[in-house]
């Protein structure tokens, strides 16, 4: 499998619970991005890593959200004390290093439902 | 606030016709422009990227960029029912930022 993978694909949780999602980028892609998409909207940027460094964070990323990429390979996105408004598709994307290419390739997403 | 605007549609075209999808953006310094296709319940799939003014063709798809007008479009020739999807326009502003700003997408329906 050479694409971006995400796990789990679906997550149902109760309000107030913590959830964690994982993203494995395309091999050797050093840039990794997290987006959130709600119904009828385009994806909204959350955060971006270059290797293990978190270089950009959106104001959408409240204190309840945290992302890590400890070894510059896979990344995790954790949401603490989930709220119903967190229900969305969480998308991960990656980009290969170098050159002029900045094309982002998306994984299948994790669909979160908060009851 | 960087904005990307698209007509939400739905845009309906008959099979075999040309579908024209449009997008405008607010950040004049934007450098990279992308069209993604998204089927219902699926993640975005890259169709085209364009960086310079003019046209870029790839099979049945042609992307057009006009930076002076802050306008980017996607033409789909010989539209097929399998092209029915939501098309997302995405813009990267550059200036050290790698995040993409997406429009809300245009829903295209190709009628057999």
Find the structural class of chain A using helix and strand composition: mainly beta
Determine Rg of chain B (CA atoms, Å): 13 Å
* Shape assignment of chain B: globular
**String of helices and strands of chain A:** EEEEEEEEEEE
Helix content of chain A: under 10%
Low-confidence stretches of chain B: none
Query: What is the N-to-C succession of helices and strands of chain B?
Result: EEEEEEEEEEE
Cα-atom Rg of chain A, whole angstroms?
14 Å
Question: Helical element count of chain A?
Answer: 0
Distance from first to last alpha carbon of chain A? 33 Å
Descriptive report:
The complex is a heterodimer of chains A (115) and B (112). Chain A has 115 residues and is mainly β. Chain A contains no helices and eleven strands. Chain B has 112 residues and is mainly beta. In chain B, 0% of the residues lie in helices and 59% in strands. Chain B has strands at residues 4-6, 11-14, 19-25, 32-38, 45-50, 54-58, 61-66, 71-76, 85-94, 97-102, 106-111. The mean pLDDT of chain B is 94. At the A-B interface, strand 4, strand 5, strand 9 and strand 10 of A face strand 4, strand 5, strand 9 and strand 10 of B.
List strands and helices in order, with pairings.
The complex is a heterodimer of chains A (115) and B (112).
Chain A: E1 5-7, E2 10-13, E3 19-24, E4 31-37, E5 44-50, E6 53-57, E7 65-68, E8 75-79, E9 88-95, E10 105-106, E11 110-114
Parallel strand pairs in A: 2-11
Antiparallel strand pairs in A: 1-3, 3-8, 4-5, 4-9, 5-6, 7-8, 9-10, 9-11
Chain B: E1 4-6, E2 11-14, E3 19-25, E4 32-38, E5 45-50, E6 54-58, E7 61-66, E8 71-76, E9 85-94, E10 97-102, E11 106-111
Parallel strand pairs in B: 2-11
Antiparallel strand pairs in B: 1-3, 3-8, 4-5, 4-9, 6-7, 7-8, 9-10, 9-11
